[in-house]
């Protein structure tokens, strides 16, 4: 294949290869966008489920992720096949994602929570079978620290572009045809059903896996993950990742309620979400260059500080003030994606050292921080929706001023608090080491 990546030692990937490898991130973004933003409102307002029960369903799906993600990560490191370490798992995942999407996104009023939970398990199993091996694969693509930032930046850029493309259809249905939430969710479901096989096929046809080191053996997954957690730098990355997940999920899960109820702008939710995806497309390459010049820690600190400064201003936005809301969304999105890009690049630094030592644990390491992210997302959205339920908020009813302020708070305060805590953690620590941890998980892990 003329477009294949010839070796894991490739120093700079072509833009075509970067896009081909990053294309499944469009699928992941569509899934996360739906799961964090559209499905909570769809389950509560269209299917009629209690909002607190919706929060628990979303949390349960994330807990399921937490159980299977490390297993899939370890297995895709442990069992090489004639087709590679990562490829077979991604192939198995694609049809499960499409099948689960059919059950979730076309659910009708009266569908029970048990049925939705079953489809959610199928959906998330397929999602993890694609995302975890693909994530581990990405950590191995280059031995150059700055190229790893470029690879992760490309993935985040494609994610933002994917969010815009994904949102075009529901936004068109909302503003152009006046169609409601059920039609918008159905359109997202159709996109996911198609994206799963197409993006996986694109990666498999275009990109060749690096050869597995002959010493790769991970006999004890529990000792492996324990060894990873003994590294101080990895622990700090996981804490920061958890803060990102909780804040993003809480804000995403309440965004439509914030816009359409608290700010009295019905019919604008999907359209305004596009604003948040446009700005990072232009700025992510800039932030990647800044990290090369000033270091990852300083750029992360700037990003979290800006988040903590801007997010609480949502409490002051006037109801019906569309222009002010757009300006605020633009300001808030100036640093979108910087945290994901640089934290993943830091994990890539650690993984590169292991590869050079003849150890290939990239999917296991990716699974570790991915579990942290997904569990944090589940906790974040469950806490935010639970707080709204406790405050007496109902999506299909006009709320009192106190209840609508609770919606604002559930949207604005999690990113504010997460930004402040992240800044404190980064100010206490130094710049991340360019390679991996000094501590190796141990020779006992090798069979």
CATH architecture: Up-down Bundle
**From the alpha-carbon coordinates, what is the Rg to the nearest angstrom?**
21 Å
Strand and helix order: HHHHHHHHHHHHHHH
The backbone outline, from C-alpha atoms, is globular
- Terminal-residue CA separation: 35 Å
Report the biggest beta sheet as strand number plus sense, adding barrel if it closes.
none
| Helix share, percent | over 70%
Counted by DSSP, the helix tally is 15
Number of strands: 0
What do we call the CATH homologous superfamily?
Answer: MFS general substrate transporter like domains
The overall number of domains is: 1
Give the CATH class. Mainly Alpha
Protein name: Na+/melibiose symporter-like transporter
Transmembrane segments: 16-35, 41-68, 89-107, 113-131, 152-173, 185-204, 238-259, 265-287, 299-319, 325-347, 368-393, 405-427
GO molecular function: symporter activity
Keywords: Membrane, Transmembrane, Transmembrane helix
Explained architecture:
- The structure is a single chain.
- The chain has 447 residues and is mostly helical.
- It has a single domain (16-441), classed as Growth Hormone, Chain: A, CATH 1.20.1250.
- It is 74% helix and 0% strand.
- The protein is built from 15 helices and no strands.
- The protein has helices spanning 15-22, 24-46, 51-78, 87-105, 113-139, 145-175, 181-206, 221-229, 232-262, 269-294, 296-310, 322-332, 338-356, 362-390, 401-428.
- Helix 6 packs antiparallel against helix 7.
- It is globular, with a radius of gyration of 21 Å.
- The two termini are 35 Å apart.
- Belongs to the sodium:galactoside symporter (TC 2.A.2) family.
- Keywords: Membrane, Transmembrane, Transmembrane helix.
- GO terms for molecular function: symporter activity.
- Pfam families: MFS_2.
- This is Na+/melibiose symporter-like transporter.
């Amino acid at each position: 294949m003329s477009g294949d990546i010839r070796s894991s030692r490739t120093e700079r990937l072509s833009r075509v290869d970067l896009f081909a490898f990053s294309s499944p991130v469009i699928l992941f973004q569509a899934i996360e966008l739906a799961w964090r933003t559209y499905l909570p409102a769809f389950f509560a307002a269209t299917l009629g489920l209690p909002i607190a029960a919706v929060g628990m369903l979303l949390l349960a799906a994330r807990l399921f992720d937490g159980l299977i993600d490390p297993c899939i990560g370890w297995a895709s490191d442990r069992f090489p096949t004639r087709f590679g370490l990562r490829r077979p798992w991604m192939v198995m995942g694609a049809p499960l994602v499409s099948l689960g999407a059919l059950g979730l996104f076309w659910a009708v009023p009266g569908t029970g929570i048990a049925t939705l939970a079953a489809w959610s398990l199928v959906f998330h199993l397929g999602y993890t079978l694609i995302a975890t091996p693909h994530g581990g694969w990405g950590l191995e693509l280059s031995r150059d620290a700055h190229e790893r930032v470029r690879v992760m930046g490309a993935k985040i850029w494609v994610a933002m572009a994917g969010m815009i493309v994904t949102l075009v259809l529901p936004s068109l249905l909302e503003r152009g045809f006046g169609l409601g939430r059920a039609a918008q969710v159905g359109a997202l479901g159709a996109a996911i059903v198609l994206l799963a096989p197409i993006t996986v096929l694109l990666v498999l046809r275009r990109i060749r896996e690096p050869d597995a080191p002959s010493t790769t053996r991970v006999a004890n997954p529990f000792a492996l993950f324990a060894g990873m957690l003994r590294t101080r730098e990895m622990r700090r990355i996981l804490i920061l990742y958890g803060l990102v997940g909780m804040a993003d999920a809480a804000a995403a899960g309440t965004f439509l309620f914030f816009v359409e109820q608290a700010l009295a702008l019905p019919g604008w939710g999907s359209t305004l979400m596009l604003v948040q995806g446009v700005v990072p497309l232009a700025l992510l390459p800039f932030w990647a260059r800044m990290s090369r010049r000033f270091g990852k820690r300083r750029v992360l600190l700037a990003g979290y500080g800006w988040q903590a400064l801007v997010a609480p201003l949502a409490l002051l936005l006037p109801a019906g003030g569309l222009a002010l809301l757009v300006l605020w969304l633009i300001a808030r999105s100036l640093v979108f994606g910087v945290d994901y890009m640089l934290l993943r690049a830091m994990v890539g630094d650690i993984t590169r050292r292991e590869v050079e030592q003849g150890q290939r644990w990239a999917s296991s390491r990716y699974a570790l921080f991915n579990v942290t992210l997904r569990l944090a997302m589940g906790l974040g959205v469950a806490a935010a929706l639970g707080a709204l339920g406790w405050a007496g908020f109902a999506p299909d009813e006009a709320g009192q001023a106190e209840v609508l302020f609770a919606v604002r708070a559930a949207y604005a305060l999690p990113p504010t608090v997460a930004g402040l805590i992240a800044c404190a953690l980064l100010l206490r620590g130094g710049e991340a080491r360019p390679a991996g941890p000094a501590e190796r998980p141990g020779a006992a892990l090798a069979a």
